[in-house]
Amino acid sequence: MKAFLKRKDIVISGKRYFVDAMGAMAQGLFCSLLIGTIISTVGEQFRIPWLTSPVATVGGTEYTVGALASAMSGPAMACAIGYALRCPPMVLFSLIPVGFAANALGGAGGPLAVFFVAILASEFGKAVSKETKVDILVTPLVTIGIGVAFSALLAPVLGKLAMKVGDLIMQATELQPLLMGIAVSVLVGVALTLPISSAAICAAFGLTGLAGGAAVAGCCAQMVGFAVASFRDNKWGGLVSQGIGTSMLQMGNIVKNPRIWIAPILTSAVTGPLATCLFKLQMNGAPVSSGMGTCGFVGPIGVYTGWVNDVASGAKQAVTAWDWLGLLLIAVILPAVLSFFIDKAVRRLGWVKDGDMKLS
User: Fold this and answer.
1) Which of 43, 146, 182, 199 is deepest in the core (most CB within 10 A)?
2) Where are the domains of the chain?
């Protein structure tokens, strides 16, 4: 069995599934749901006809360019996971209907369902791939059959579980905005920097509202915080690559000296409760945006999208100057200022020195 699994490149490990697969899943989400939301928002705000007009009608439903991209989030996530698991082409392509089924049956918790179902379908598909002379029939039949079967069995349960967990977090944040603001901000921010996907986690649990706002605060604190704290080591290139790219670039340096993480984490512990208690910052856009921070400015764009949706639905009267001030302070200014001074104090203690955050 060990020899068979090795030959099929089936590696049952936490790294393969919760680091590689989940990280790829976030990329699939970005290239479908997230980019679709951004396209739709740009089209609506700048009144661009070819972005707001339907380009296709499927089953009586009209789709714009952005809506089409968002509708393909299930297949995109499943294919991304299959790519991370090194699936052969026939298995990879067969994951398209699997992802669609899992996401549709999972409801609001679709991303979590896609994550587990795509992994199972991928590994079963890899196991039978090229084992018969009629591989062109066997591999897609097994991959799709297993995937759709697990979607029917697991997706509704996983979807409901994800919704309940997400609802619990959001309700707790509403009831205890101070404590939960700190907890959500720190934990999601840490997940952003670790080699796992904070975006996938937020999407899986549907984190929106105040909890989503706290998550945005934590992610921005990590990205902007590391960008500013490491400026003397990495200059402008590091500022851009971490500030609008990813703080995950510092993971290797964190392993060498975990104390470099103090400034961003303490910053998130401050900006999180400020977001929930003072500015009432809410993420009512796509949940995946809650875990993106300033990566491509997706977090702030998601907050803005939520404002637009709330105004359109009547839940919010207008976007105020206080809203903009809160977003600017939480996403950029406070993370930069707080991280700078906290890092300075940590350096004076001798815990961090020049070169500790140098990116190779």
Assistant:
1) 199
2) 2-164, 176-348
